[in-house]
Design brief:
It is built from ten helices and 13 strands. The protein is α+β, with helices and mostly antiparallel strands. The protein starts with 8 loop residues before the first helix and ends with a strand.
Length: 327
């Protein structure tokens, strides 16, 4: 065993390549050669080492990939077996006038605390042994697909929790319209703007791109905004709300069905995280298991697990959900 851990250089190199950061080509080549060397002697120790290296890379990529959730949800990270305490305000402090030297009314500040049950989200890639030996198995690509699928699983759980909590409500928490109807959508945005911070308008590219028709985003837009739109999905803003697209790829073997719903747009205040109704707990880091090479198929199977808890909780439902009925 080589004693590789999360901070080892080979992990840093592959993680940098996954994050499309600049690295020396020679370093990436050396990292790939090391994997080939391990695979050329497929002992249980070496297959375990390969799985561990890949788990560290996926863990790095997944942590970065879901960092945006900290801007739209109350996110807590804990160790294994630990319960996160989510605080929810019940009452608030108030200021009031009264006659001089008279007794002022008391404002009681109270909170409730909740914990979440976590579930296991898993991926189980199978790699051809000869592809590892020859270097045809692209470690970065395997990690990238794993990170994407883990993120989608978590976002899908958030989507389902949010829709279940808000779809039965009315304005300013839930409304709908054929396309972006300002008369319907704006009350949600205005309400969430009053909560504090600049609200985020989050949704599928087909839904949020319709805001460009209202804001005038076209071929004459400033170059900086066009670059931002193309690189990270930040389309711009609509009435003080930042518009961001969700990663929502097609389902496997389809060019029509997407992993997430295309018709839902979320309006989320970015103020105090304790006020955000979506609660997310990541319990521990990514766990990995690497199985020996299958003698019949000559394939190596790996399994990666992450414990995640998701819920929509709050006395005040401080989020808006808009359903575009035209999608």
């Amino acid at each position: 065993m080589s004693g590789i851990n999360q901070d080892s250089r080979i992990v840093e190199v592959f993680s940098a390549n996954l994050g499309r950061k600049e690295i020396e080509k020679s370093e990436l080549k050396d990292a790939q050669e090391f994997i080939k060397e391990l695979a050329s002697n497929p002992s249980p120790e070496n297959t375990y080492e390969i799985a561990q290296i890949l788990s560290y890379i996926i863990n790095d990529g997944f942590t970065e990939r879901v960092r945006y959730m900290e801007d739209i949800a109350d996110v807590k990270r804990t160790g294994f077996g630990e319960k996160a305490q989510f605080q929810i305000e019940i009452d608030d402090l108030k200021a009031m006038f009264q006659a001089k030297s008279s007794t002022t009314e008391r404002s009681k500040i109270s909170n409730k605390y909740f914990t979440l049950d976590t579930d296991e989200v898993s991926i189980r890639p199978v790699v051809n042994f000869l592809d590892l030996v020859t270097g045809k198995a692209n470690f970065t690509r395997i990690a990238e697909k794993a990170v994407e699928q883990l993120e989608l699983a978590v976002v899908k759980r958030i989507q389902n929790s949010a829709y279940a909590a808000f779809s039965a409500m009315s304005t300013p928490n839930y409304t709908s319209g054929a396309g972006i109807v300002p008369a319907n959508f704006d009350p949600l945005l205005h309400a969430m703007s009053r909560v504090g911070g600049r609200p985020t308008i989050l949704g599928d590219i087909e839904a949020v791109s319709k805001f460009t028709e209202l804001t005038g985003f076209n071929s004459n837009v400033a170059d900086a905004l066009a670059i931002e739109h193309n690189e990270n999905g930040m389309i711009g803003s609509y009435k003080a709300g930042s518009i961001v697209k969700l990663n929502n790829p097609f389902q496997s073997n389809s060019l029509t069905d997407t992993e997430l719903r295309k018709d839902l747009i979320y309006v989320i205040p970015t103020g105090d995280e304790a006020l955000r109704p979506i609660k997310v707990q990541f319990e521990g880091g990514l766990q990995s298991i690497g199985a020996p090479i299958n003698i019949n198929s000559k394939e190596m199977e790996m399994r990666f697990d992450q414990y995640v808890g998701v819920a929509a909780i709050g006395v005040r439902k401080l989020m808006g959900v808009y359903e575009d009925t035209s999608l």
